[in-house]
Amino acid sequence: YAELKKSYASNITVLEPDCSDWAAMIEHSRVETGRIDRRINEVLDKGADIIVLACTHYHWIEEEINELAKGRAKVLQPEKAMVGQLKKVISQL
């Protein structure tokens, strides 16, 4: 991740809020919308224009994030691209 960020995002500001508890929250069916709202609004208030859902768990809360970001930032869900790349790598084995 660090190498990709250095190669492709060296000229932009990357905001990385601490969302380390989100996966466990989702896995235990204890989604706290207030916690999600605070973190998303925090980066939006700092000027984020793209939000990348960089965890396989986040599709479960994608709708809420899209609603929060509506009109303020684009939400990218890289899940399909990741699956495509995985299939490509597996086919080469």
3D structure, described in words:
By secondary structure, this protein is mainly α. 51% of the residues lie in helices and 6% in strands. The protein contains 5 helices and 2 strands, in the order αααβαβα. Strands 1-2 form a two-stranded parallel sheet. Strand 1, helix 4 (62-69) and strand 2 (74-76) form a beta-alpha-beta unit. Helix 3 runs parallel beside helix 4 (62-69). The two termini are 24 Å apart.
Beta-sheet strand percentage? Answer: 5-15%
- Pick out the low-confidence regions: none
| SSE order | HHHEHEH
Number of helices: 5
Computed Rg: 15 Å
Which descriptors would you attach to this protein?
mainly alpha, 93 residues, globular, 6% strand
Short structural summary:
By secondary structure, the protein is mainly α. The chain has five helices and two strands; from the N terminus they run αααβαβα. It has a two-stranded parallel sheet with strand order 1-2.
